[in-house]
Amino acid sequence: MFLELLERRNPALLRAAGGFALRREIPPNTFVLDLDAITANGAAIRAEADRLDLSLYFMTKQIGRNPLVTKALTGEGGRETVAVDIADATALTANGFGLGHIGNLVQVPTIDLPRIIALEPEVISVFSLAKARQIALEAARQGRVQGLLLRVSDPGRDTYLPGMDGGILIDELAETARAITALPGVRIDGVTTFPALAYSEAAEPRPTGNFETLLEARDLLTGLGIEVRQVNAPGNTSAYTLATQARLGATHVEPGHGFLGTTPFHLRRDLPEIPAACYVTEVAHHVGDRAYVYGGGFFVDDPIWLDPGFRRQVKVGGTSAELAEHREEFFGAGAGETGGFGGIDYYGFISGTPRTAPVGATVVMGFRMQSFVTRANIAVIGDAGDSPRLLGVFDQMGNRLPTYA
User: Fold this and answer.
1) In sequence order, what are the residues at sequence separation of 6 or more whose Cβ sits closer than 8 angstroms to the Cβ of residue 395?
2) What is the CATH class of 36-260?
3) Which DSSP category does 124 fall into?
4) What is the pLDDT of residue 203?
5) Which residue in 87, 150, 160, 240 is deepest, having the highest Cβ count within 10 Å?
6) Consecutive H or E run containing 18
7) Secondary structure element (H or E) that encloses residue 86, with its range
């Protein structure tokens, strides 16, 4: 549903992405990232964060932990990163970046603790005293004191995305915190949650109940004599949301789709960040009145923001002129029913006949990317508006693919 926004605010990216696909310089099933737009978006977020005295951890899972993008956001070898899981941490450090925050959504598994602690992340999130004990034991063995963020939870008040719940219950926080402070090898640095801002409301930033839980936890720890260095409030973050997060008491935020210009807020108003990503693929064959396009990247999470009657559109053509003018409807992907997105997305489905969407035609789409849960490639381009340059094609782990060099 971001195609119209791209056409209005970053048409150069659509033209450049379509051109590379038409010339067979990038393969189907590829997200194309506009590095210059991302750099400018990141600068806008950083300027606002600096104004508000907020610290940044950039989320890179959705762009395949791409090293060119991460460098543009954090600098060479930067540590302003958040690793959702071990794959994030592995990809980031393999490309020379440091670890800021790890574990907010996916706890560090026991087998990985020695390696992760040796990498000296700024903070590791824990959901329980048991995990804190594991980290303390390994950190003490390495002669380190590891900073922890306590993920806190109040199921009666908090909002959770499916499968992303958990944390130390607010009613048990004092007892748990006392036990953790007695452990050698760890230090409580602060508290965290997810999501701190609502995703369902696209009009303006609105805190979830989680934010209230976060602040209650901060005050409780402070009352125990613990110095709370971080109130980490991630979720749905962009330059537009930072004033709200700072006003409510956050110290650290984690922009991800903000630097891509693809948060729900970007659909409702023109914000400092412009959309910086699109998806390209190719017509493979036809079944009845549908054209099947190569899939692998279809993780589409926009239904809650769709206006009634909204119909997803794609650009289709065998030439630049056709891509500029011709549209078809996008129905869905995989085993899902019309409008759905099944788990195995060998193909996506669009309207079109062998005449209107012939085999081999390029297809350009605009939707929120989540590369880490797909099989999509990542192409990074520069100078999209002038003389577009292909800077590289990568996999989801930030590895350059020599096949498409």
Assistant:
1) 64, 377, 378, 401
2) alpha beta
3) E
4) 77
5) 150
6) helix 11-22
7) helix 86-94
Residue-level pLDDT at 303: 60
Q: What residue spans of 119-254 are helical by DSSP H?
A: 129-141, 173-181, 209-223, 242-248
Helix-helix angle 35-52:67-74, to 10 degrees: 30
Residue type, 220: L
Contact indicator for 106, 126 with CB cutoff of 8 Å:
no
* Residue 225 token pair: 């004599």
Domain with CATH 2.40.37.30 in the chain: 3-33+271-404
Delimit the CATH 3.20.20.10 region(s) of the chain.
36-260
Neighbouring CB atoms inside 10 A of 187's CB total: 17
Q: How confident is the model at residue 99, as a pLDDT?
A: 98
- Cα gap 219→207, rounded to integer Å: 18
The answer to whether 147 touches 122, Cβ cutoff 8 Å, is yes
The pLDDT of residue 209 is: 97
For the chain, the straight-line distance linking the first and the last C-alpha, in angstroms and rounded, comes to 30
Residue ranges in the chain modelled with pLDDT below 50:
none
CB 135 within 8 A of CB 150: no
CA distances from 130 to 110, 115, 127, 142, 189 (A): 11, 19, 8, 19, 17
Interval 211-221: pLDDT, tens? 999 999 999 99
Which bin fits 287, alpha (ψ -120 to 50), beta or left (φ > 0)?
beta
DSSP 284-307: EEEETTEEEEE-S------GGGPP
What is the assigned CATH class of domain 3-33+271-404? mainly beta
- Please give the single-letter amino acid code of residue 142: Q
CA-based nearest residue to 38, from 350, 356, 403, 369: 369
Q: What are phi and psi of 109, to 5 degrees?
A: -65, 155
| pLDDT at residue 15, rounded to an integer | 98
Contact 69, 92 (CB under 8 A): no
